[in-house]
Design brief:
The protein has 6 helices and 13 strands. It is of the alpha+beta class. Residues 40-201 form the Multidrug resistance protein MdtA-like barrel-sandwich hybrid domain.
């Protein structure tokens, strides 16, 4: 009974797929409608602060590394200036102590010679013990001063290194308060304006990653079971009907699900389908970034039989020489 039920389900799914298949699509191909989507990227603040500049707006196409906004960094700049001053003071202290150390080396050498001479004279009976004790005290004092100056140099060097590290940290923090585009793509939302104070992690922009644009389509088991990672696909957008874009199968759902309302026909929505992701080649997107936008509707075609020839109407454009291999990431 269970086997008969399963067989009927498979036949029903295959029949529905055959009946809803786009007309004129030859054997060895599968198709479904969908919409282009791009990965969203939030551009957030790292530290709390006030927005001092807004340089781009919604809809602007930005390039990776382009400055989008700046946070007021006058307080950090003051800390940076103080750290640089402390480093300079420590450097000056090192130089002064080094000069003092040279003088103390001469003084220590002289004290050592006088002490040695006093010892010989005492042994020969030409000098008193009191003079020897005095020369020993002078030598001990010179040696202590020498070691104190050495410690002062070591301490000044440690202070200088700490000040340099603080200055580097403040410089990094200032750089982090300059918000830049992490990828190429359009600005989808601008959420704040100049003068607004944001907490750490405050979202200033939401942008789309123009290097990761895809269409999710839904296929029944009879078709999804034949799809493989890396299969060639073609996207025909309503806005670009005469320019089928080459794509690659980069994700295949491991579990079936109900299709979303975006699928046009009721019969398809009533079936449990598998989600397939078709990713457009990033190199090709650069040539069409002004036309390929998130939300554009279209059809996605997958060549299930790698020996089948593409129909002229949906034959994808030639691929760029460099192609990023697909990954099974939703």
């Amino acid at each position: 009974m269970a086997a008969a039920t399963l067989l009927l389900a498979v036949i029903a799914g295959a029949s529905a797929w055959w009946l809803t298949r786009p007309p004129g699509l030859p054997a060895g191909f599968a198709a479904s409608n969908g919409r282009l989507e791009a990965e969203e990227i939030d551009v957030d603040t790292k530290f709390a602060g006030r927005i001092s500049e807004i340089l781009v707006d919604e809809g602007d196409l930005v390039k990776q590394g382009q400055v989008l906004a700046r946070i007021d960094t006058r307080d950090i700049a003051a800390q940076l200036a103080q750290a640089n001053w402390q480093a300079a003071q420590a450097q000056q202290a090192i130089l002064e102590n080094q000069e003092t150390l040279v003088q103390m080396q001469s003084s220590l050498k002289l004290s050592a010679q006088e002490l040695q001479m006093a010892r010989r004279l005492v042994q020969q009976g030409f000098e008193t013990i009191e003079v020897l004790d005095q020369r020993q005290s002078q030598f001990d004092s010179a040696m202590a001063n020498y070691h104190t100056t050495e410690v002062g140099i070591i301490s000044a060097r440690a202070g200088m290194q700490a000040a340099i590290h603080n200055a580097e940290l403040y410089a990094v923090n200032i750089a982090d308060d300059t918000l830049v585009a992490p990828k190429d793509g359009p600005i989808e939302y601008r959420l704040h304006n100049v003068g607004e104070v944001l907490p750490a992690g405050g979202k200033v922009y939401t942008m789309l990653d123009a290097t990761y644009v895809y269409m999710d389509i839904f296929l029944p088991t009879s078709a999804a079971g034949r799809v493989r990672f890396g299969d060639q696909a073609s996207l025909v957008l309503d806005a670009l009907p005469g320019r089928p874009l080459p794509a690659t199968v980069s994700f295949i759902a491991t579990e079936n699900e109900f299709t979303p309302k975006a699928v046009e026909t009721q019969s398809e929505r009533d079936l449990l389908m598998f989600r397939i992701r078709l990713r457009i080649d990033p190199a090709l997107l650069r040539a069409h970034e002004a036309h390929v936008r998130s939300g554009l509707p279209g059809m996605g075609y997958i060549r299930l039989d790698r020996k089948a020839g593409w129909p002229d109407a949906i034959k994808p454009l030639p691929r760029p020489p460099a192609h990023q291999p697909p990954t099974n990431q939703p």
